[in-house]
Amino acid sequence: MQKIVSLCKRRGFIFQSSEIYGGLRSAYDYGPLGVELKRNLINEWWRNMVHSRENVVGLDASIIMHSKVWEASGHLAGFNDPLVDCLLCKERFRADQAPRIEPGAEARLAFADKGRAKVAEKMLREQFELEVQRRGKEIFGVTAGDRGYCCPVCGSPLLSEERQFNLMFKTNIGAVDPLGSVAAAIAAGEFDGLETSEIRARLDAASRENAVYLRPETAQAMFVQFQNVQQSTSAKIPFGIAQAGKSFRNEITIEHFIFRSVEFEQMEMEFFCEPGTDDKWLDYWCKERMGWWQQYANHPEQFRLRPHEPEELAHYAKACYDIEYLYPWGWGELEGVANRTDYDLRKHAERSKAKLEYFDPVEKKRFIPYVIEPAAGATRGVLVFLLDAYTEEEVPDAKGDNAQRVVLKLHPRLAPIKVAVLPLVKKNGMPERAREVVEAFFAHGINARYDEQHAIGRRYRRHDEIGTPWCLTIDGQTLEDGTITLRDRDTMEQRRISVEAAVSEIEELLRA
Ligand code: ATP
């Protein structure tokens, strides 16, 4: 991971957001190469999901949506996680996911002792708790409550109170300052003598008046626009609505570079089908989506489809599969494919009173469609393909000695730059000829780049490292007979070919 993070910065794939001001934790900027890779990935998804299917259409909805959408979808309630801080090691974690305390089990205690982290001996849970109580009293003047769980990092049961925390980013629309009315009420003494919880409720109510939320998923827009899309396109069931775009979650744990960030991109599709056909379509979309990821991978065996255990299923889902990737830290989610039943359409219909139904003109019947949702992470996909492509190889150098090269074996359709055009030297008309070749690629819509810096060997290595599948070298012979050297990134084979043949061959290879 560290090698990839450093390559991303060095070569201009991904930078920390606001880096010159110390960086904003968990937000990232995609640099000149990263933006190409991310766009290519999303374009490939769109080509497969929308442009290759008669029954799927696209949508680009606003990121800010009415707060009633999130009330109806359950996000305003469901995205509330009880959060706890560990008083010893300061870890913040979700109470519902914390390890339970088992009497009699062994535990190892790491505690922060006046700024120094110490690891105590392994001890029985009973001794451990006594020790925690003793130290807790000594350092914090508190004793552990009977919570039944402990800190996932240091095992301490010395914890703060549970606090509700909403993962959605809230903001306010319009010029009205929600704090104005609160300030006036405080000045008028209306808050005097109120309990903390009552004050909290008043503040919440005031801030909710013109509150809107940044979407935590792209999916809800497809449900709330179901009727508009279906009627404007006269779509017949089964059909899908696809959308790719930004989502925002105020994640508690931020981890593994762009794997989990607060601002990220998703590629989601809601596939509306007749109840009773949903199992068949879930199966279909699992296969389609697994195949899609694997076709771009060097190591397809690093992807797997994992069914959710019944207790893992979201309350609205009838069945769900995760497409997982074997990250350096283990298997983790890349995409979820869920049977969401008619839950979302039904909830929105109840709340909004809109008729979110489908009328089958052949069977002459009305019903609320079931929904199969393949929901993928686009930015997480970028990380997966960087991990999949990153390769270190031993290759002979110019003198025939063993040298190491780093090569990003990105699928050509994902590669940020498709062709690098390199004049052997910066004179004798070679730069001019090379620029003509770049123009020839541009004319075919292929992202080619001119590169004249450093010796030719170093230029090859640089393009290996950023995943450019082909390098074309212009030399003295090019000016005589119009041929150039075509070098393949993966095999490093070089052969002479005419400029015209190179353009059409590469165009053909990119289409495959
Ligand atoms: P996780 O269990 O990893 O938190 P999730 O089950 O909450 O993910 P979904 O709501 O199913 O995720 O979202 C669909 C996809 O969106 C995920 O498979 C993942 O690829 C991506 N995704 C979700 N949250 C984030 C995030 N904070 N940063 C980057 N990608 C994300």
Report on this structure.
The chain is α+β, with helices and mostly antiparallel strands and about 500 residues long. The chain has 4 domains: about 30-65 and about 220-385, Bira Bifunctional Protein, Domain 2 (BirA Bifunctional Protein, domain 2); about 80-165, no CATH class; about 175-210, no CATH class; about 405-510, Rossmann fold (3-Layer(aba) Sandwich), CATH 3.40.50.800. Helices cover about 35% and strands about 30% of the residues. It contains 16 helices and 26 strands. A 7-stranded mixed β-sheet has the order 3-12-13-19-16-15-14. It is globular. Residues about 110-120 have low confidence and may be disordered. It binds adenosine-5'-triphosphate. Adenosine-5'-triphosphate (ATP) binds near residues 266, 334 and 380.
Features:
26 strands; 16 helices; 512 residues; binds adenosine-5'-triphosphate; 7-stranded mixed β-sheet; alpha+beta; BirA Bifunctional Protein, domain 2; single chain; 5-stranded mixed β-sheet; globular
Summarize the structure.
The chain is α+β, with helices and mostly antiparallel strands.
Helix-and-strand structural type: alpha+beta
List cofactors, ions and other ligands.
adenosine-5'-triphosphate
CATH architecture assignment name of the largest domain: 2-Layer Sandwich
Radius of gyration, CA atoms, in whole angstroms: 28 Å
List the helices and strands and how they pair.
Blueprint: H1 2-11, E1 14-16, E2 28-30, H2 32-49, E3 56-58, E4 64-65, H3 67-73, H4 75-78, E5 80-85, E6 92-94, E7 106-113, E8 116-124, H5 125-140, E9 163-166, E10 170-172, H6 178-187, H7 196-208, E11 211-214, H8 219-224, H9 226-233, E12 239-248, E13 263-273, H10 278-295, E14 303-307, E15 319-327, E16 330-341, H11 343-352, E17 358-360, E18 365-367, E19 370-377, H12 378-389, E20 390-396, E21 402-408, E22 419-423, H13 430-443, E23 448-450, H14 456-465, E24 470-474, H15 476-481, E25 483-488, E26 494-498, H16 499-511
Helix pairs in contact: 2-12, 3-11, 6-7
The chain binds adenosine-5'-triphosphate.
